[in-house]
C-alpha cells in the first residue's frame, strides 16, 4: 500500500540514527491498513494523510513498548520506558513540525484515557481500534 510505505519512509526521517528498526513490522498490522484505507476515503492532501497515519503508527509503537515492560528485569524495564517515551516524544515532534495542532489537541484527551485503559488491563488492539474511530471522528468534522 503506497500510503503506508510513504508514511514509514516519512517517519524514518524523524527517527534518530539506529532507531529505524522499530518500524520493521509496522506494515503487518491490519488495523493500520484499515486506517490507511480510511484516510484514502477522505479528500486529504498527501501531506496530511502521511501525518495522520504517522501519528497512528507512533502512538501504537509507543504503547507497544510500554506494554512490553518486564517488571523483574530492571534493564529491560528502563529500556522499555525510554523506548516508549522516545516514540511519544517523536509523535509530538512530528505533529509540531507538520503543524497538526488541531489533531494533537483533539487526541490529547484520548491519550490520557488510553493510558488509564491500559493500566486497567484493556487490550492494546481494542485501544488502537478506538484510536482509529477517534481519527475518523476528527476527519468527519474537519472534512465536512
What is the gist of this entry?
With 144 residues, the protein is mostly helical.
Q: What is the typical, i.e. mean, pLDDT?
A: 84
Task: Please provide the count of β strands.
Answer: 0
Strand content: under 5%
User: Any idea what the radius of gyration is?
Assistant: 15 Å
Structural class: mainly alpha
Separation of termini? Answer: 26 Å
Series of H and E elements: HHHHHH
Question: How many strands, what sense, and barrel or not for the largest sheet?
Answer: none
Count of DSSP-assigned helices: 6
Helix content: over 70%
Shape: globular
List the domain count as a whole number.
1
**Spans of at least 5 consecutive residues with low confidence:** none
Amino acid at each position: 500500500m503506497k500510503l503506508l510505505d510513504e508514511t514509514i519512509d516519512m517517519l524514518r526521517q524523524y527517527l534518530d540514527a539506529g532507531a529505524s528498526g522499530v518500524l520493521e513490522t509496522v506494515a503487518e498490522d491490519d488495523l493500520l491498513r484499515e486506517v490507511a484505507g480510511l484516510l484514502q476515503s477522505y479528500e486529504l492532501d498527501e501531506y496530511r494523510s502521511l501525518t495522520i497515519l504517522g501519528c497512528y503508527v507512533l502512538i501504537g509503537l509507543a504503547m507497544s513498548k510500554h506494554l512490553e515492560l518486564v517488571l523483574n528485569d530492571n534493564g529491560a524495564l528502563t529500556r522499555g520506558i525510554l523506548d516508549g517515551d522516545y516514540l511519544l516524544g517523536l509523535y509530538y515532534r512530528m505533529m509540531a513540525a507538520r503543524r497538526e495542532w488541531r489533531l494533537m489537541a483533539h487526541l490529547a484527551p484520548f491519550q490520557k484515557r488510553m493510558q488509564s485503559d491500559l493500566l486497567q488491563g484493556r487490550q492494546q488492539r481494542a485501544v488502537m481500534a478506538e484510536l482509529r474511530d477517534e481519527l475518523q471522528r476528527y476527519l468527519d468534522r474537519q472534512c465536512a
